[in-house]
Amino acid sequence: MHAQHFDSLVRRLGDTASRRRALEVLGGGVMAALFARVGVEEAGAAGCRNAGHGCKRRRQCCSGICRGKSGHKRCRQAPGQGTCTIQLDSCFSTGAVGCNGDANCACFVTKAGASFCGEHFIRCTDCATNADCVAAGHPAGSVCVPAKGGCAPCNNTPRGACIAPCPTP
Prior knowledge:
This protein has helices at residues 3-13, 19-43, 130-135, and strands spanning 66-67, 74-75, 98-99, 102-109, 115-119, 143-146, 160-163. By secondary structure, it is α+β, with helices and mostly antiparallel strands. The chain folds into 3 domains: 1-43, no CATH class; 48-77, no CATH class; 90-163, no CATH class. The strands form 3 sheets. It has a 3-stranded antiparallel β-sheet, with no helix packed on it. Strand 4 and strand 5 (115-119) form a beta hairpin.
């Protein structure tokens, strides 16, 4: 910044003490703006980060998947995620949270913590992992959702229930 413009700015700010004080004031404003920007990015428009963005924890990612080497972790797309995020979970909403533009599909969060767009119909097969669902004869790509909220209304699914994937948009 040109010296005359800087002096003029200092006078307009009403700080006659010194250029150093003006720099402190301006520096504080820049730092406040920077921290505000980081806070907005952390929250994201939907409260999460899309695939490819940096992350430290899985809950920062829309997919629920944060992987990579320490210091270089990135959000990854979850298998069968479609238009869902971990904030959209039909198990904890009053109605099904639709996905992929299909009225027969809803958003879920798997037992592994990943977002998933699956059939609205829950298959009453007890499961602990996604592999349990496929082993029980459900379609490839089926996932296990926790027995919590309204997700596992079946009496025989104390650990979780299976959900088949929906077609991608």
